[in-house]
Every structure is written in structure tokens, then in C-alpha cells.
Design brief:
Blueprint lengths: L6 H8 L1 E3 L4 E4 L13 E3 L21 E8 L9 E6 L5 E6 L2 E7 L5 E4 L9 E8 L25 E6 L4 E9 L6 E8 L7 E7 L5 E8 L4 E6 L16 E7 L3 E7 L4 E3 L5 E3 L2 E2 L2 E5 L13 H14 L4 E4 L6 H10 L2 E5 L9 H18 L5 E5 L9 H14 L4 E6 L10 E5 L12 E5 L13 H19 L4 E6 L5 E2 L10 E2 L12 H8 L9 E3 L16 E5 L3 E6 L2 E6 L14 E3 L15 E7 L2 E8 L7 E6 L3 E2 L6 E9 L12 E7 L2 E4 L4 E2 L4 E8 L4 E8 L6 E7 L1
Helix pairs in contact: 2-3, 4-5, 6-7
The structure holds beta-D-galactopyranose.
The site of beta-D-galactopyranose has 11 residues, from loops.
Amino acid sequence: MSSNLKNREIKLMKVIKNFNQNWRFIPELVAENYPDHAFESITLPHTNKLFTQLFVDNQAYQFVSTYRKHFTIEEDTTHKRVFVDFDGVMLKTTAYLNGQLLGIHAGGFTPFSFELTDYLQHGENTLTLYVDATENPEIPPYGALVDFLTFGGVYRDVYLRIVEPCYIQHVFVRPCDVLTTPTVECDVQLSEWQPGLTLQATLKDADGNIVAQQTFDVPADQLTVSLTDLAPVQLWTLEQPTLYHLHIDLSSDDQFSVRFGFRTAEFAQDGSFYLNGEPLKLIGQNRHQTYPYIGAAAPKRLQQVDAEIIKYELGCNIVRTSHYAQSPHFLDRCDEIGLLVFEEIVGWQHIGDEAWQALVMQDLQAMIEHDRNHPSIILWGVRVNESPDDNNFYTQTNALAHQLDATRQTGGVRNFAESHQLEDVFTLNDFTEIIQPPRPPHLITEFGGHMFPTKTWDHEARRIEHALKHARKHNLQLGHPDVAGAISWCAFDYATHKEFGSGDRICYHGVMDIHRLPKMAAYFYRSQKSPEDEVVLYAATNWTMGDRDGGGNNPLTIFSNCEVIEVLFDGELQGIYHPNRDEYPHLKHPPFTIKWQEPYNPWGTRMDDLEVRGYIKGECVAEQKITTDHLPHSLRMFTHTTELDAGGSDMARVAVQVVDRYGNVLPYQSQIIEWSLEGDAQFIGENPQVLLGGQGACFIKACHTAGEVIVHAKSAYLPPVSVKLTIR
Ligand code: GAL
């Protein structure tokens, strides 16, 4: 078995089939005998509606749609049980098989299943889903206002699962004594018990080598097995996130494979967070699962890319899944690349009645049962984000979390410091520019956000201040021994309800825009990376005389992880500068703050090209030039992947920026881009598209055939650009 074969794919070889293909969709509620030809053919994940980038109207997705799938099961299902598993459907699902009601599921963020067994027919079957995306006050997060959109549809993957009646329902792998003599304990929950059952547990390393193997008797439908005497194991670390697989073979002919890692994670009373016994300050981002155009219906690749952006482009070590459980693909990628996760239950400020709370409990249980094998997850959020105290409710959520997973601590995100704390970690949204008196272990779970919304096309002073607010808060938290870390609000701009946002239904709270393209603040985060990973040198300026109040460029801020910076005007050395340790003593790589003694280029005199050079150990390792003509020189087009998988789901984001002759983005270039495509793929986006902040993007979705696709973009003033994607 190949080393990086994933959990799901292993199961898929045995008993699970991807069920994303060949669905029919109609954006209304229709009878079961409504003709097929009236439906649109679709592949999952699917959004019930496509949107423009701005002005997303939440009324537009609130309707019931019908999803239909005809299918035949090739396998012999006699004496088997058959399920359909949903990773997430927004927001309420009523399912029928061949006209028989299978069940109703309320809740959009956690996985659920319906059993098909009793109603399966030989030959063709018809599965019908009525998916109601109404913002139903009885279903969390609704009941009050919510500052994000939920969208609608079968927006995550679906699987068909065929199992023996005696099958494995849940497996929870618990590495023990990780830092001394590692062993593995594993809880196994069966659907039913049969006499004479045995179970073989095989632990394999990332290369597929067997590390331990043992067979056990199965005395009941619930058991815990242990594997000891392991060959030395490698820890799961942020730098080297080594993963292992535990394969469980049940003699009733069922198998289950779980991917996990050996690591310890603890928020300690001394205020620090410890990963594998080493203190680690947490620097993170909140993430909403919102995308332009497609709402929340982002396929595997886009989910993976988000994790990669947060880890590699923003240099962060933790993400909070605000304010709900997120895609399995996102969490899988966090495991693979070494990005810690604080995963949180659904909700926003409001607590509903008993029935509503029961849905939160259901959501919490599903979240932990599905996600507790992820080594990246270090904390469960068991309080509705920023809700009032409710000791009765939160005693229950804490107890359930501890019962389902005694290995992880709980947090409960609140926005008032005096609240009752029932959780293990005090998790506080702290929008002040100080640190609220810590209650260790204490984690700052939000700052920034609505306190300073910033657009990519805002004036320079605002964009710089936005970045510096992030720099200041991290400087504070890094210098505070009682604070374990701080997670910014937030990674990416997101669509919201009319009661929030900037009047165009967007919260411009991201350090990147909704396309995941950087604002200046993104460069602050990036500059905190080790130069061994990436040398970063970014002058936070458009180098103009008349954009700031009062004019000029004083001071000039540069985000960099270089040791020393030279600044040149028109090729002439102006000065040599060091990181601003006076103001930012606790940052690993403080910004450079360059204050001119004499005002540089007094108003109306002259303007020279700017050049900055970064040095490490005396060697020039980076340089940036900014031209003063500010003329758009070219379009820059890029994509995070040049290969897509055929099958109707996979997507690439293709981005375009207007740049000057040195490659700097020109934020006030709102050019109109016309996109075109050659080859068999679907364009998703606005066409023509007005670039905002000098940048924009579309999605290219693979169809069902392999081949080449070329994406072109042109504007009236600049040479056209293109990228080639290969569809495999
Ligand atoms: C917080 C809330 C977030 C978001 C943020 C905006 O209070 O938890 O979901 O609304 O404010 O800054």
C-alpha cells in the first residue's frame, strides 16, 4: 500500500465508494416522479446557487432543492448493510430511497449517514434528497443574527458504504507515553457483537512497514486493544508531521484504517502550550469555509490549498475552524503539513431552546467521533462562539467532549473576560490593543476583524496600519508568558449578512482577500517565517507622494526576515537599517521602520524609484524595486496547481494581478479582465471581471475528460496572459 494513501482511500478500496458522480439537481422541491430531463446533471460537491464576488444575497440560497441519483449496486448485498455517508449538507436534509423515507438530518457542518439496506432494490435505485437551505431558527447556527453565510446544497463529498452486519462503527487511536515508551491504545466500537470474533490490529509506518501487529479476542461490541513493544516511532511535529496507519481487520470481514500521529499537546497551567513537551507560542488564523462564487462548495483541492496557504504563505502554526467543523480534506491536509487545529462546534452568540441545544450536542458528538484521530487537532471548542454563560448547557458539552476524547482539552470561546469557565483552556476573543489579564492557560482566539476592516484597495496608510495591528498584537502575546498564543480574525475576507460587513455583504477582515490573495498584513505574517523556509522582503508601500494624509512616505515600513536592509533611491544608497526591536522586541522578525530625518522628497519636488535590499550574514539575499511611474506594466497570472483530476469536481483557482514593471501589484488598478478557455473545463467566476485592489481570480473546474485546458485573461490595455492546466 502506498505510503501516503489516505484513510478514506484505503476504506474506499474495501467497502466505500465515492458517490459524487451522476447526480441530478433542480432548485425547487419536486415530486419523486418529476421527469429526469427537467433536472441539471451535476457532480458533487455542489452549491445550490452560484454568486458574484460581492453583494451575495443570503435570500438567494434559501430554498428547498431536490437532488436525485439513480444507481445500481454491482456488489452482492445479500446479508449486508448499505449506507450513504454525507460529509456535510446545508442545512436540512430529508432523504428517500425508492419512495421510502430514510430520515431527516438537521445541521450543515458535520457528517451523517442514512441506512439504505431495507429499501434497496435489485437493479436501479433512486435516492432523492430534499435539501432545505433556509436559515432555519431551529437549527444552529441560526436563531439570531450570524456574521457569516451558510449557503446551501450537498456541498461536501458523499460515499456509499457496504458492510457486514457486524461492522466497525468507530475507531479511536490513542498514542500513549509518546515521549517515553510509546504504545498505542485503540477503542473499537462495533455495530453488534457475534461470538468467536477476533480482531487483528496492524500498525504501519508512513512507508507501509509493519511496526506492530497483534490479534485479539473480541468479548463485546466495545473494546480497547493495546499495541506495545513498538519499534522506535517518529513523532508528529510541525516540521516533520510523520503519520502512521492503524489497520483493524475484524474476522466478520470488516476493515477500518485510521491515520494518526504520535504527539503530545497540552495547554499547561504555567500559561504555555507544549507540543511534544516543548513550549510553542501559537500564531494563527481563523478560517471560514467561504469562497467567492461557490459559497462553501469547495472540493478537496481547494480545501487542501487553504491549509497550505495558512501554513506556508502566512507562516502560521494554528488555525481555528470558526465557527463549525470543517471539511475532512482541510483537516487531513493540516495533519499532512503540520498545522495545528482548534476545531469548534457550530454557533454564533446565540443559544436556542432545548431542541436547538440537542442539535449542538449532536454536532459536537459527530465532530469528535469523526475527527479525534487527527493529530493536528489540539483543542475542542465546546462553547457556542461568544455566547453568554450557560452553566447547564456547557457542563454538558464539556462532559461529552471529555467522555468522547479524554486526550484533548476543551476551550470555549467567549468575548467577555469575567465569564464562567467550565473549559480547560480560557479562550478569549480579545479585540483590545492590550492583553486582558490572563487566566492561564489562556489563548487569544480572535483579534483584529471588525475593529479595522481593510480592503485591498484602501489607501496605503490604512493597509499599513492593518498589518501593524497584527504585528503589535503578536508582539504583545509573544512577550506574555501567561498567554499561549493568538489567532487573528481572520485569514480570508468572507461573505456575510446585511447586518454586518461593508455594505457589499463582505467582511473585509482577512489578512488576505476572499480569493486568498494577500493584503499587506499577509506579508507581516509571512515575514515571521524562518528565512531558511523563505526569505521575505516586502516594502509596505506603493511609493507615492500623495496617498497618505499630508503626503509623503514617512515612515516606510518593510516586512522582512532579513537581518539588515539597504534602502536606495534611484540607485543611490540612502541608508542601512535594522529591525525595529524597540517597538517589537518579542517578534522573531520585527518590521523595519524607516523614519527619514529630513522629509524625503518634499511635496512637489521629485520622486525616485525605490529599491530595498535584504542581507543575511552579509550576503544580499533579496531585493525589491518599486517604480515611481506607477504604470501598469503587465498582467501576472498564476495558479496553485497546473494539474487537475477529471471527474467533474476538481478545481483550480486562477488568479490575475496587474503589476508594475518590477512585479509589484498596483492596488488601484481596477482593470476589466475578460477570461476565455480552451479545452473541456468549466469557468466559474465573473466574466468580464473587474479587478479589485489590482487582483482577482476565477475557478476552473475539470469536466469528465482528460486533456489540456488553457485559461486566457486579457484587458484592454495590457498584453494577454494564459496558463495551461492538464486534466488527468
Ligand atoms: C467576532 C466573531 C467573529 C467575527 C468577528 C469580526 O466577535 O466571533 O465571528 O464576527 O467578531 O471581527
